Amino acid sequence: MNTYTHILFDLDHTLWDFDRCATETLTDLYYKYQLEQLGTPSPNEFCQVFHQVNRRLWDLYNRGEYDSERLRQERFFLIFDELQLSYDETLPPVFAEEYLTTCPTKGYVISEAVTTLEKLRDRYQLHIITNGFSDVQAIKLQYAGLTEYFQTVTTSDVAGYRKPNTGMFQYALKNISATPPECIMVGDNLKTDVLGARNAGIDQVYFNPAQHQYTEEVTYEISTLPELLSIL
Q1: Global pTM?
Q2: Which of 175, 174, 183 is nearest to 125 (CA)?
């Protein structure tokens, strides 16, 4: 029987509902800036291209091939170009700034996240470990009503490492004065969260609501957050 005392959570897609928050923000901005007049036929298509480009950029960021400032500056230029829009060069920076200001204030969380955290908080110390940016993550936690559940928040820009680099996990564990056997990592990203934690000697819970197929060895797999309670 493992005796975990610390649970490390990823934030986006694991607790904070990134897809819903981003889609709502982008839809509002689509209409505000009248993107249909620039050549985007629908907000759905705009959101689809955003998520495709955003995933590519975050994969590059996680591999260390992009830094946070470049991602922020280039993202909407790349999205608008992918859509072949006719736009003024001043629009993407304005759009990016408003997206970054608005999206983190959307308080949507993954189903049953709060009730699960409520049941875990009295038995474990809970922590966030994320490749997201510190300023943005703090706002997300606040507006989603999640701040009170976590003792620490470790971000890549503070740690100087990015998941799956083991340095990220070592930094977090040193910060909370814990050893790998005392911790378990919960996240939706098989590479950055699960395999990163495994390489750092930390047990893992792969949050896999979409039931993606994989061959890598993981400690546990769940498709809903309340399943954590039966594991722990």
Answers
A1: 0.93
A2: 183
